[in-house]
Structures are given as structure tokens and as C-alpha cells.
Specification:
With 437 residues, this protein is mostly beta strands. It contains two helices and 34 strands.
Length: 437
Amino acid sequence: MKNLFKIMCVLLAVMIGASVSITVNAETVAEVVTQATATSKDINTSKISTNSVTFGYSVTLTAMSKGLDTKKCKYAFFYKYEDESWTTIQGYSTQTEVNWKPEKIGQYEVCIKILCDSKVYKKYFNILVSEELVNLSLVSSSHIKTGDAVTLNARASGGLPGYTFAYYCKRAYSDWWTILNDYKEATSVQWKPSESGEYDICIKVKDSFDQISEKYFTLTVENEGVKIPSEFYIDLKAPVSAPYQWSFDISDNEVIQFSEKEEYRSMSVLDSSVTLRYYFKAVKTGESEINMKYESYSGKVYNISYKITVDRHLNYTVEDSNGTYFSGDIPEIKQVKRPFEVNMELAPKGYSWKCDISNSNVIELSGTEKVYRQTFTFNALRKGFATITLSCSSPSDTNIIYQLIYNVSIDDDMNINVDSYDGCYISDYWIPQIELL
């Protein structure tokens, strides 16, 4: 009201020809006069670099005009956060561009003013500041056999809710992408590659303000190829004085083959014996018998027989074992295994961790335990590849809040290699690692 009174006095003095000496701020006069006389729409052509920005990034505000003498212009920049009052970014000056970084997440209104010849021309913009759009998508495996399908799971956080997802694939080193499913609300897609080879996969996430985040994956598709035998062993004791009296015979060497023998000496004074470990491989579907024989110096003979069946996956089953041994029960046949584990935080109330293994012939789940943390224990069984998926979900499996994916390969020496891992976990910066036992 004070400024308006001063302006009215000036106008009155002009009208009556009076000589009145009143000091009035030119900018204040222009602010009031322009409300009634100036048309900003076609004169103030200012622009902003974007009307949506991720928190932590800047917006460039550029003052521009049409039909004004720029030598006489000054520019000012202001913002208002939601229902708060206006704040000055930069007062009137000859600078036409500023970089402004919003301090909060939410809705802003920005005003760029141009002062020229005692008139002010305004232009307003709306800017939405959101959390960073994060693409949390996962692919069920990075390694499959021909004829198998891979599942592409899309997920996002941040940005502006109302996500849509798009799925693409292409041959590795090709420039041409194939659309599996364009932007829709579908959060998963199954894809079965028609041929073996290397592929690239891309999952894109778009929020309701058209911000896009991309995530890329690689997929190896292999032909069935040669099946890998399972390997097992038998531990047999013998006196130190005559440790090599054990011999063996295999009824069908095309089904089961001998691999190697190792010797372990007992360090106990009360047990002066040697343990001989015999390794065998199941290499073909069928049935076979392993007959172990020990002839002592006293003339006593010990015989042990194992009847074994091998299935089409080259897994073995001991159908029967019988015979005589030095003491106690007949030694059991044992699978060659290499143990490892994964430890993660306990599931929140109402949720539980679940495990899925893509190839149970290569890796098996040995057990799980919940104390202060959730522990899953696994055994590597033979050379090959498998994907371990650990999901924290509701009882109905309709709401998965965390998911961890480990792509694991086992080499000829039963070494465990984590080829890649990914996931959506409690922490955005750390994923539980596989630990060897």
C-alpha cells in the first residue's frame, strides 16, 4: 500500500502540474504499472533447461526477450517451493543465465523477470524435483540351454510413480535391437531364444514424467552338449603294514569308471591304519557293480559290493551294498562336494527368504538356518553352471521386496566362481557375497 500511495502521488503531481519531490524506487513503480499495462507473454521468451529434475542436479534458467532493447534490460530470477513464499535466486542484473539447484524434493514455481524502460515482464515455470529414478531390474539367469526360457523382471524406485517398462534383446555385437515388449505396466517378460549364442538384453524403466533409466545384461545360450559325470568316492581302511591289499573290479566300465586313489595316514597311536580313498565317475546311463576286495596275510578275505544305477543326468544311486569289513558298518559311497554359503539379514515380519536353483545337477541346497542372520548353505556337485535366486517375499509370493541373483560356475577342479551377481537388497550399496567353507 505504501508503494501504491507513492505512485498515486506521482501521477497526481503530473496531472496538476505540481512540483512535488518524492523519491520512488523505479523497480517498484514498474512492478505496479506493468500489472495493468505490460503484456509479458510475447515479450518475455525466457526458458528453462527442464521442467523435471532429479534431486541433487541443477536447472539452467535463461532470460530471453523479443522486441526489447537488451542494452536497457536487467534480469532477476525467483523461486517458490510449494506453498511457501518467494525466494530470490538472483536480483536484477545484466546476467541472463543462472544455474539453480533445488534444495528439496517437491514442486517448485520459478519466475524470470525482465526490467526494461521501467516495465517488468514476467514468465512463470513449474519444476518438479524428484528422487533419482533407479532401475532395479533383474534377469533370472545369465546362462541357459537352448529351449529354455529366461525371465526378465522389471523394477524401479525413485522418480515419479506410475512406471512403465520396455524389454529389448539383440545378438551380441549387433546394432539392431528387437522389442520384446514396448512400454507397458508388465513387470516381467519371459523370452526363449531360438538359437544358441551370446545375447544382449536391455530393460528400460520410464516414470510418469517420462524420465527413463536403462539397465543392460548379457545372456549366454548353449546347446545341450556333453553331459558332465557326477563323481563319488569310497573310503576304506587298511593296516599300515599292508595298506595296498584292497583291489576293485567294475562290472560295467562304460557306466562307471575309476578315476584316482588317494592315501591318508592316521596320526593316532591307537589307530595305526591307512585310509585309501577311491574315486569313481558315473559316465553313462545304466547299472554297474563295484566290488572291493582285501586279502590279509592271515588268509582272511574281505569283500564289499556296491550295486549302482546311473540316470540320464549321470546322477548315481546306490541300490544295494553288502559284504564284510574290518569293523562296524560297510563304508558308504559319498558324493564329491564343495560347500559354500550366503548370509543375509533376516526377513522382515510377514516375509520370508526362499531359494531357487536353476540347475540342481550342478548345485544343491544343503540347508538353511535362522539365528541372527539367514544362512543358506550349498554344495557344488560337478562342473557346470547354475543360477541361485534368493527372494524375500510374502507367503503368497505376490510381493517380492528383495531379490538376489548369483550366476555361479564350477570348473574341472570343483572351484566355485561367481561370474556375476545382482539384486535388490536392504542396502543399495552392498549385496551379500558367496563365502567358501
